[in-house]
């Protein structure tokens, strides 16, 4: 479908989207990562832009084309993503779909060498929670939406995250199948009002439905 531009229901609104994984360096040649493809987040950025929103997308390392009319900022690590989110504020709408690494590594300055059969220990440090920080900030977006990728007890975990992080909605994502990297998605929309089970659809269809829901909510 084409962009509605100035006629779109989100014209005049700003939106911030995070997407993809983060990479946390172990040493100059190695990193910790996760299986996030970024596809759902990129589709959401595209869908919001099509409804006329001014979209800034902060993307972790993924090989995906930038959607039309989306301003893209590339980052590698969770700390870089946190700083980029901060710098992109204020925004009316924020959708934090990125699979932010929960931990970074106290990285070595030089390539770690094998050492006679003794494996190195990695010292992990917890990353800041970008979503929870945004929920408490002076620039809290009017509509703040988080994601929850779960492999079990999806709704229970999503409701706990909604309360713990102080966001308005959680898009709960069942990642027990082949969702990571695939083109389809099964989600539940969890809000303080209740839980909606959405039918399995393409990531583009899920994104379009979510963008329309956002436009309705802001009206
Ligand atoms: N999130 C974030 N910053 C982090 C971790 C997560 O902003 N350091 C955001 C994600 O982008 C997502 C939401 O928080 O919108 C939930 O992420 P998730 O990994 O499901 O939650 P966690 O609190 O990290 O809990 P878990 O132990 O289940 O990973
Ligand atoms: Ca996590």
Automatic annotation (TrEMBL):
Keywords: Decarboxylase, Flavoprotein, FMN, Ligase, Lyase, Magnesium, Metal-binding, Multifunctional enzyme. It comes from the Bacteria. Residues 15-219 are annotated as: Phosphopantothenate--cysteine ligase. Its cofactor is FMN; Mg(2+). The keyword Magnesium applies. It catalyses: (R)-4'-phosphopantothenate + L-cysteine + CTP = N-[(R)-4-phosphopantothenoyl]-L-cysteine + CMP + diphosphate + H(+); N-[(R)-4-phosphopantothenoyl]-L-cysteine + H(+) = (R)-4'-phosphopantetheine + CO2. Binds 1 FMN per subunit. Its EC number is 4.1.1.36, 6.3.2.5. Residues 11-216 form the DNA/pantothenate metabolism flavoprotein C-terminal domain. Pathway: Cofactor biosynthesis; coenzyme A biosynthesis; CoA from (R)-pantothenate: step 2/5; Cofactor biosynthesis; coenzyme A biosynthesis; CoA from (R)-pantothenate: step 3/5. GO terms for molecular function: phosphopantothenate--cysteine ligase activity; phosphopantothenoylcysteine decarboxylase activity. CTP binds at residues 102, 111, 128-131, 147, 161, 165. Catalyzes two sequential steps in the biosynthesis of coenzyme A. In the first step cysteine is conjugated to 4'-phosphopantothenate to form 4-phosphopantothenoylcysteine. In the second step the latter compound is decarboxylated to form 4'-phosphopantotheine. In the N-terminal section; belongs to the HFCD (homo-oligomeric flavin containing Cys decarboxylase) superfamily. In the C-terminal section; belongs to the PPC synthetase family. This is Coenzyme A biosynthesis bifunctional protein CoaBC.
């Amino acid at each position: 479908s084409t962009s509605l531009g100035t006629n779109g229901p989100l014209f005049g609104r700003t939106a911030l989207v995070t997407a993809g994984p983060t990479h946390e360096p172990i040493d100059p040649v190695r990193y910790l990562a996760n299986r996030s493809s970024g596809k759902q987040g990129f589709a959401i950025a595209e869908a919001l832009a099509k409804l006329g929103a001014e979209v800034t997308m902060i993307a972790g390392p993924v090989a995906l084309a930038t959607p039309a009319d989306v301003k893209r900022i590339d980052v590698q690590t969770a700390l870089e993503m946190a700083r980029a989110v901060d710098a992109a504020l204020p925004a009316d709408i924020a959708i934090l779909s990125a699979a932010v690494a929960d931990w970074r590594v106290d990285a070595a300055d030089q390539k770690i060498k094998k050492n006679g059969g003794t494996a190195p220990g990695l010292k992990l440090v917890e990353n800041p929670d970008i979503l929870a920080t945004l929920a408490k900030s002076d620039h809290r977006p009017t509509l703040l939406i988080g994601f929850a990728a779960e492999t079990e007890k999806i709704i229970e975990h999503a409701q706990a995250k909604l309360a713990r992080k102080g966001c308005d909605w959680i898009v709960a994502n069942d990642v027990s199948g082949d969702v990571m990297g695939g083109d389809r998605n099964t989600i539940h929309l969890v809000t303080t009002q209740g839980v909606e089970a959405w039918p399995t659809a393409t990531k583009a269809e899920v994104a379009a439905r979510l963008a329309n829901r956002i436009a309705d909510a802001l009206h």
